[in-house]
Amino acid sequence: KAYLERIKEVEPQVDALISITEEYALKKAEEADKMIQDGNINDLTGIPVIIKDNMCTENIRTTCASKMLEDFVPPYNATVVENLSNLGAVMVGKANLDEFAMGSSTENSAFKTTKNPWDLSRVPGGSSGGSAASVAADECAFSLGSDTGGSIRQPASLCGVVGMKPTYGLVSRYGLVAFASSLDQIGPLTKDVTDCAIVLNAIAGHDPKDSTSVDKMRKKDYKEFLKEDIKGIRIGYAKEFFGEGLDDGVRESIESSLKIFESLGAEIKEISLPYLDYALAAYYIVSSAEASSNLARYDGIRYGHVATNYEDLIDMYMVSRSEGFGKEVKRRIMLGTYALSSGYYDAYYNKALKVRTLIKKDYEKAFEDVDVIVGPTSPTTAFKIGERVEDPLAMYLADVYTVPVNIAGLPGLSLPCGLSNDLPVGLQIVGRHFDEGIVLNAAYAFE
Ligand code: GLN
């Protein structure tokens, strides 16, 4: 009830939510009370959570911040939602996002722009901007976001909270509305690293309903990695991180963070990721190609927006899609369709896949010498609302440090590491595949 009160108080300023699920939350909280009375209690019993509105919630509207799905009510829960629900977590709302998770500021939402709680004239980042802002504004104890190219870590950085994208395959994508299936991954946004480990415990694990979910992993307790001691851990920083476009204030925070790691006993090493420069280009080809295919299902027949005025079947598809999708989504569909078309497939899509392999190899090589790689999450702090809407390329640059991590499928965590002009700066820690433990260990010691 206290969180629902808080939502009513701050939501008019922050606009983090597409739905407030009050009735559901009160019912769920009663169930949690009952669980506690029965002695059936765990870390998440009764804990209020907000879910990004691209994860399916049974009988609760799931819009992807798109007119296309404005009235879509899924008949089932995403696996992560089901997991949290079984533990007694209480969903209090569904968070705003960039339409279909395409964007870095929530300005591509068809419904509203979320404001950064640190400065309401600035963006919270995106696409999980509503999820990050809702944690920063205390509308929930934690939230879930999805990250295809940085959409958990970049908003976490801009809103001063902890956000983690797990290794591709660790968390089930079942019930997450697909953007780019080979890159999408769900993860927690939390107040601190301990909460991050708790939420990861709840959502990680094999799911037969997601064919890319990994099943040979032994289930880990991520809380066991929350140790102050990082003596001897080898931390790499890539010289390529400190190039053009990085704000001075962000650079200073990252440099002093490296010194803190050193004073904690870690060994700091310079590494090189030579193909980093090509990551954004490869990402926008691969993700748009996959998006153009995934979004083909919105044809006005199976579900979603249906046009009322049309001439024949083809026209119905066209008018439904023209009306239902926003500008950025259309831009990606066109880009992706072009990259996949015969004649251009080899020049764009296949080439991007080759670059993807080179970037993976860069990381494999780097991880021969270091245990984690540390650097900035985002090149700048939160920018002003409206500042980049007319310039998609400037917007895409917000993800320069996060997309390579998705391309390689690695785990990455962003945690607050200081302020620049009174705005939070995020530090990104990246680990080897399924090495979330050491990432959490480094983050916990730093925090
Ligand atoms: N900002 C990136 C994009 O627009 C990443 C989005 C995401 O991770 N969902 O594609």
Please tell me about this protein's structure:
The protein has 447 residues and is of the alpha/beta class. It has a domain of 224 residues: Amidase signature (AS) enzymes, CATH 3.90.1300.10. The protein is built from 14 helices and eleven strands. The chain has an eleven-stranded mixed sheet with strand order 1-3-2-4-6-5-10-11-9-7-8, sandwiched between helices. It is globular, with a radius of gyration of 21 Å. Bound molecules: glutamine. Keywords: ATP-binding, Ligase, Nucleotide-binding, Protein biosynthesis. InterPro entries: Amidase, Amidase_CS, Amidase_dom, AS_sf, GatA. Heterotrimer of A, B and C subunits. One of its GO terms (molecular function) is asparaginyl-tRNA synthase (glutamine-hydrolyzing) activity.
As for the CATH topology of the domain at 2-225, it is: Amidase signature (AS) enzymes
Q: Strand percentage, roughly?
A: 5-15%
Tally of individual helices: 14
Corresponding CATH superfamily of the domain at 2-225 = Amidase signature (AS) domain
Largest sheet: 11 strands, mixed
Q: Helix amount, in percent? A: 25-40%
**Rg measurement, Å:** 21 Å
List the bound ligands.
glutamine
The top level CATH class name of the domain at 2-225: Alpha Beta
- pLDDT under 50 segments (min length 5)? none
Strand order of the largest sheet: 1-3-2-4-6-5-10-11-9-7-8
| Arithmetic mean of pLDDT | 97
Distance between the termini: 30 Å
What is the structural class? alpha/beta
Overall geometry:
globular
